[in-house]
Amino acid sequence: MEIKGIHHVSAITANAKENYHFYTEVLGMRLVKKTVNQDDTSVYHLFYADEVGNPGTDLTFFEIPNAGTTYPGISSISGTSLRVPNDAALSYWQERFDNNGVEHHGISTQGDRKVIHFRDPEKQRLTLISDENNQGVPSGKPWAKSRASIEHGITGLGPSKLTVQNPDPTVKVLTDLLTFTQTGSYPSSIEGQEDILVFSTGEGGNGAEIHLEVRNDLPRERPGRGSVHHVAFRVENKEELAEWRDRLRQARIPNSGLVDRFYFQSLYFREPNGILFELATDGPGFATDEDVEHLGESLALPPFFEEQRTEIEAKLKPLDTKQP
Question: What is the pLDDT of residues 54-75, one digit of tens each?
Answer without folding.
Answer: 999 999 999 999 999 999 999 9
